[in-house]
Amino acid sequence: MTTHLVLAVRGELSFQSSTVSEETGMTDVIGERQHLILAVAAAAWLCAGAAWAQNYPNRPVRYVVPFGAGASPDIVGRILAERFTRLWGQQVFVENRVGAAGVLGSAFVAKAEPDGHTLLQCNIGSNAIAPSLYLKVPYDQVRDLASVTRIGLTPNIITVHPSMPIRTIKEFIAFARANPNKLNYASGLPGTSPQLSMELFKMVAKIDIVNIPYKVGAQGVSDNIAGQVPVGISNFPASVAPVQAGRLRPLAVTSAARTKQLPNVPTLAEAGITGFDVSSWQGVCAPGATPAALLDKMNADINAVLRMPDIRARMEELVMVGAQTTRAEFDQFIRSEIARWAKVIQDAKIPRL
Fold it and tell me: Any idea where the domains of the chain sit in the sequence?
């Protein structure tokens, strides 16, 4: 005889068939009862998930930003939390859980109750780069965190001090090739989006320049402005003002498209590095076992907020391009990012921390 086992994974049903021998009598009966119990439990789980979604949220929501107050992710988080509060009729409060480049905050949410009342503002660092950069990460991004939606993308920008005899990416590559390991570049710490963007660029352009990492990326920008480090790469917002003031010379942005803030600065792809497209990103994740119906409601609600004209305008002010997704699209995006940066870290021989 054939029985069917129903499994609930993240609130979704799947069926597995198992053939039972006619000679096992009582064992078959017990097995069938166990399968029936599992099927009933799975169905109850789905019903509970649907009920939760209808009544969600029914108490205040903790929105974890794994970076410090005043940083760009924190600003984004507070803008969204205020609008979620209005939409849901429940207080959504930002909680900054800082440490290990965002890993501590991500670990906290990964272990939280999967009821939608603890959310994570996930990001390229702790949720795509960290799994390959750190020897021990206390969560599995794919298993322990559920993708809700992407918030937006922010490019990085390559700059040089105005005293440098370099005005284009082609000139930069030629200079670096003529002076291997003599150029230094400032960036954030190893494993940050700007630093890995430059390491990827170095491999593609076949150049050797030396990284000067800064614990605080803004200090690297300051030293690039002062001429203490001739080359810099940073998240775009950190360098817009000095570029506009003529204190830094921009060479290219790392995204696929130019920015509205500096429309005359080309992309790396336009400068001859075909297909180069790297942006820092932020999104929303939830604990991995959160029911699918609840995740679907969060995806719909959060995407509705991200489409609001005033929210889009605020994101644009922060140099963040709106890029919301379905749950499946964001999940696939994160998986591809994990694979991408694992290869860069390996190929660039970046030591694991």
Answer: 2-55, 61-153+281-347, 155-253
List the structure tokens of 36.
């029936």
Residue predicted with more confidence, 282 or 36? 282
Backbone torsions φ then ψ of 223, nearest 5 degrees: -70, -30
Equal CATH topology for 61-153+281-347 and 155-253: yes
Average pLDDT on 255-269 reads 95
Say how far apart CA 183 and CA 173 lie, in whole Å. 11
CATH number listed for the domain at residues 155-253: 3.40.190.10
The full 3-state SS of 182-197, as one line of letters, equals CCEEEECCCCCHHHHH
**Closest-CA residue to 76 (of 312, 261, 264, 271):** 312
All residues at 6 or more sequence positions from 30 whose CB lies less than 8 Å from its CB, including other chains: none
Neighbour tally for 195: CB within 10 Å: 26
Q: Domain spanning 61-153+281-347: which CATH class is it, in words?
A: alpha beta
| b (16+ CB within 10 A) / e for 4-27 | ebbebebbeeeeeeeebeeeeeee
**How many Å is the Cα radius of gyration of the chain?**
24
Give pLDDT tens digits for 37-74: 655 555 555 555 566 678 899 999 999 999 888 888 99
Read off the tokens for 311. Answer: 């929210």
